[in-house]
Design brief:
It is a single chain. This protein is an alpha/beta fold. The chain has twelve helices and twelve strands. The strands form three sheets. It has an eight-stranded parallel sheet with strand order 2-1-12-11-8-5-4-3, sandwiched between helices. Strands 6-7 form a two-stranded antiparallel sheet. A two-stranded antiparallel sheet has the order 9-10. A hairpin with a 5-residue loop joins strand 9 and strand 10. Helix 3 packs parallel to helix 12. The model has no long low-confidence stretch (mean pLDDT about 95).
């Protein structure tokens, strides 16, 4: 193999022992898990709002942003449950560009995965301790999930990973909700097959061991839009799209049917301000169909302190260095409005 083995990374146990959760952290995490679980089982009809930066690039700005979310959560807690996005792993379509804090704890420096593993764990623990939130992250690499397995409240499997067998099998052993995005092609059967696989029990190889999973009944769909053969964005958040997914759920033996709408990416054509309109349209759809109301579990919104995006060395505090995001003022206004009309 034409691969250079640079270093052996510490084991999951070693990293967790170096940076452990305190008893109070574990108790808060358990409370958060129960609240999130009830939304995906239908026991709580509040709207889950998975909101935050496209990529977590620096501790100070991320913690500043999520501190603002804590205050906002208290204003909307009767209608909305906020799950902050702290995405520390980033897929890149061509392999180029910033791959997240896991790869580059400092976006302007060369990759260092040893420092990255430590940085992402420390950041998620800081958020839990300082704000009380259990956050969402993307499972870009199934092997890396274990470094955060005791601290995350929500896991997303991206459009480029959803058809991968190892992602599906590992998701079947996760004990928090896992959202499966539709692939970039828009093929909904791929997404539904992924949900089916993750809800089932499996025996498989993971980190050089034979392991067994029990199945994850909280695995669900994330609609993020698609890209057609000509490269044009094709949204899939409209009323007819939601009914199509509802029909697919009814055709199979699925547990806890649910949909999260990703308001950015191909749904918005990466026009970040369109997230405001899309979020409102989705809630409008839920008011016209009781089945759709029950099926829509929440929204995913990319948001940071400042509007737009910049280059990794741009230097603007709280401005995304990957996809463009809604700034805080627009985000706060949107969330308050969603709570009013929910």
């Amino acid at each position: 193999m034409n691969i250079e083995y640079k270093r052996k990374l510490p084991s999951t146990r070693e990293v967790q022992d170096m940076y452990p959760l305190k008893p109070a952290d574990k108790q808060q995490k358990a409370q958060n898990d129960e609240a999130i679980r009830k939304i995906f089982t239908g026991e709580d009809d509040r709207l889950a709002l998975i909101v935050g930066p496209c990529s977590a690039d620096r501790d100070d700005a991320v913690l500043d942003y999520i501190g603002k979310l804590r205050g906002l959560q208290e204003k909307v807690e009767e209608k909305i449950l906020i799950i902050p996005r702290v995405y520390t792993n980033k897929p890149r379509t061509t392999g180029e560009g910033y791959k997240g804090m896991l790869h580059q704890p400092d976006p302007t420096q060369r990759p260092n995965l040893l420092k990255g593993v430590i940085a992402i764990r420390k950041l998620h623990i800081k958020v839990l301790q300082e704000t009380g939130f259990s956050c969402a992250d993307e499972m870009l690499y199934p092997e890396n999930y274990r470094f955060l397995s005791d601290v995350l409240g929500y896991v997303a499997v991206g459009a480029r990973s959803v058809e991968n067998q190892q992602h599906r099998l590992v998701a079947s052993g996760i004990n928090v909700p896992v959202g499966m995005k539709n692939p970039t092609s828009g093929d909904l059967t791929v997404m539904m097959n992924s949900i089916k696989a993750a809800q089932a029990a499996h025996t498989f190889i993971f980190t050089d061991r034979e392991v067994a999973s029990k199945g994850n009944p909280m695995t669900h769909a994330i609609l993020r839009g698609a890209v057609d053969r000509y490269g044009f964005s094709q949204p899939n958040y409209h009323f007819e799209d939601l009914h199509a997914v509802s029909d697919l759920y009814q055709q199979g033996d699925y547990q806890n049917p649910g949909i999260i709408i990703d308001c950015n990416h191909a749904n918005s054509g990466k026009r970040y301000e369109e997230q405001i309109r899309i979020a409102k349209e989705v809630l409008h759809s839920t008011r016209h169909s009781e089945p759709i109301y029950k099926l829509i579990k929440g929204l995913m919104i990319e948001s940071y302190l400042e509007d737009g995006n910049q280059a990794p060395d741009g230097g603007v505090y709280g401005k995304s260095i990957t996809d463009a995001c809604l700034g805080w003022e627009k985000t706060e206004k949107l969330v308050l409005n969603l709570a009013e009309v929910r």
